[in-house]
Amino acid sequence: MLKYPMAFKNIAVSGRIAVGSSSLSKVLSLRLGWKFRDAGQIFRDVTAQSGFNLEVDLDKAIGSRDDQIDKEVDRKTVETLSENINSIVTSKLAGFLSRNIENVLRILIVCPVEDRINRYAKDRGYSSVEAKRLLEEREKKDKGKWERLYGGLDFFDPKIFHLVVDSGKLSVEEEVELVLRHLNLTQNLC
After folding, report:
1. Measured distance CA(24)–CA(81) in Å, rounded
2. Which of 66, 72, 92, 141 has the fewest CB neighbours in a 10 Å radius?
3. Domain region containing 56
4. Within a domain: 94
5. Using CA atoms, how far apart are residues 10 and 106, in angstroms rounded to an integer?
6. Residues 110 and 166: beta-carbon distance below 8 Å
């Protein structure tokens, strides 16, 4: 495990669907020897505690859930980033949710929409047309829920983040190296 005289004790990785935030986070976690926590797993844990069986009730858990599940997932995300050290959390809102937490490196992953559609289609076995429709539908639902919960903010405003990475231009290894260089630069400024 790499040790730093840390300006950053945790890392929040955010981005839209299919930008590669989980891919970056997993490799970065291995390189740093830090714990990896995915909001998808937090969601599965919370829904299980709420009585949903995601194998059976996936549509119900995702589509018709009340805001309490989302609030609990977001609360657990904030708790992980504020109370732990050496954790990497990936979620669409991790950067936004941690914007007021000290010592959290906030990374935004961006990617051209066509690349995201192609990735989503390949990963899920959809046609490009179906992948585009599903991405647009999910993002519209997400935005509506977030605006209801947090107001009409720009949840992916680059000003919230310390580092913006374009996964359409870089390989995962290049992204990891960019983050490690950023960590070393910021650590040397402390």
Report:
1. 17
2. 66
3. 10-112+158-170
4. yes
5. 9
6. yes
Examine residue 23 and state whether it is found in any structural domain, yes or no.
Answer: yes
* pLDDT per residue as tens digits for the range 109-131: 999 999 999 999 999 999 999 99
pTM above 0.85, yes or no: yes
Predicted confidence (pLDDT) per residue in 4-61, tens digit: 445 799 999 999 999 999 999 999 999 999 999 998 888 888 877 877 666 555 555 5
